[in-house]
């Protein structure tokens, strides 16, 4: 089977079995083309809550599939590649967060959505990169323990100077790989390009940007801008997607190294096998854990 035949088969089964395919923006283009919805973490969380289908296939990493299940317990949710995890989400577990809460009484725990379900059960509110600033501003609490990404936390804290932030030393290994030196080199090579960056990058990289935002934010900015050239400081699939969508503009990766192998673990074959019912992992959460964890997602939706 070639790619087109596989995609046609996925589309056929999807219709027959009433399946909804959600894809994070870092998935490859062949997966984008069969998805009902492509977006950033916040968009996926919203879409998961609204989709009418009973079966959801979440092309991304495990915490994303768990978030879909948190919001739609009555639906059957699959992660097409069972081993697709997020190293950042694995940096903090329940026991570590429990110890941090004990050490920091009076602090409100704001958890990046890139966390495990167990960690969410102990968190007060969840945020995504596109909703974090708005949500923390809207919260009445002043003392914030932001977990686990210190780069996103730093960026949020700079925009809300009247609140106190405690940050951890966690973060995304893919985005943290990029340096201010990479920015200097890319700007020297493309002096007319605007530099768009994800807030998971280090503060010294973010500081040099013309625009900071989530994956969808970066894509929308590039599409709507009158500028013709862009240096993209996020996972390199966004460079490919933008280049395909805007052939009259030029997109350059900040670094060829900005590839998340976890996001790339899912292939079109995995999606097809999952549709056929011969692959993928069904996500199941026990009801007590789910209800406790859902609270911080509900707070995210209420405040965002
Ligand atoms: P967003 O989808 O919120 O931009 O997050 C990027 C990311 O690293 C997802 O794993
Ligand atoms: Fe996790 Fe970073 Fe990969 Fe996103 S890009 S899944 S945060 S490792």
Secondary-structure topology with pairs:
Elements: H1 3-17, E1 19-24, H2 29-32, E2 37-39, H3 41-50, E3 55-59, H4 62-71, E4 76-79, H5 94-103, E5 108-112, H6 117-121, E6 125-127, H7 132-138, E7 143-147, H8 150-159, E8 164-167, H9 173-176, H10 180-189, E9 194-197, H11 203-206, E10 211-212, H12 215-224, E11 229-233, H13 237-245, E12 250-253, H14 268-276, E13 281-282, H15 287-303
Parallel strand pairs: 1-2, 1-3, 3-4, 5-6, 5-7, 7-8, 9-10, 9-11, 11-12
Antiparallel strand pairs: 4-13
Helix pairs in contact: 1-14, 3-4, 4-15
The protein binds 1,3-dihydroxyacetonephosphate and iron/sulfur cluster (SF4).
Number of distinct helices: 15
Strand content: 15-25%
Could you tell me which ligands this complex binds, including any ions or cofactors?
A: 1,3-dihydroxyacetonephosphate, iron/sulfur cluster
Which strand order spans the largest sheet, edge to edge or round the barrel?
A: 2-1-3-4-13
Helix coverage percent: 40-55%
Total strands: 13
Profile the largest sheet: 5 strands, mixed
Gyration radius (Cα, Å) is 19 Å
- Name the poorly predicted regions: none
Give the helix/strand class: alpha/beta
Shape: globular
Cα separation of the termini = 44 Å
Order of helical and strand elements? HEHEHEHEHEHEHEHEHHEHEHEHEHEH
Arithmetic mean pLDDT: 96
């Amino acid at each position: 089977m070639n790619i087109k035949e596989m995609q046609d088969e996925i589309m056929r089964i999807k219709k027959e079995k009433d399946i909804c395919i959600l894809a994070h923006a870092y998935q490859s283009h062949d997966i984008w083309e069969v998805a009902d919805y492509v977006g950033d973490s916040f968009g996926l969380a919203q879409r998961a809550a609204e989709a009418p289908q009973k079966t959801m296939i979440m092309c991304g990493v495990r915490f994303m599939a768990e978030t879909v299940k948190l919001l739609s317990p009555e639906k059957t949710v699959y992660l097409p590649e069972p081993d697709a995890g997020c190293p950042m989400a694995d940096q903090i577990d329940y026991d570590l967060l429990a110890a941090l809460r004990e050490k920091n009484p009076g602090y409100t725990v704001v958890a990046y959505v890139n966390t495990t379900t167990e960690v969410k059960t102990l968190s007060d509110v969840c945020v995504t990169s596109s909703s974090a600033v708005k949500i923390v501003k809207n919260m009445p609490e002043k003392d914030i323990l932001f977990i686990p990404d210190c780069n996103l936390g730093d960026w949020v804290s700079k925009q809300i100077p009247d609140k106190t932030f405690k940050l951890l030393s966690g973060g995304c290994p893919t985005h943290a790989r990029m340096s201010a030196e990479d920015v200097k080199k890319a700007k020297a090579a493309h002096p007319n390009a605007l530099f768009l960056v994800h807030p998971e990058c280090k503060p010294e990289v973010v500081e040099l940007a013309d625009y900071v935002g989530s994956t969808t934010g970066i894509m929308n900015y590039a599409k709507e801008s009158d500028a013709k050239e862009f240096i993209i400081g996020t996972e390199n699939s966004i460079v490919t997607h933008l280049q395909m969508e805007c052939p009259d503009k030029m997109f350059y990766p900040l670094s060829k190294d900005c590839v998340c192998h976890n996001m790339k673990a899912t292939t079109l074959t995995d999606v097809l096998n999952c549709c056929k019912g011969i692959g993928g992992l069904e996500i199941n959460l026990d009801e007590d854990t789910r209800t406790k964890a859902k609270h911080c997602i509900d707070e995210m939706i209420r405040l965002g």
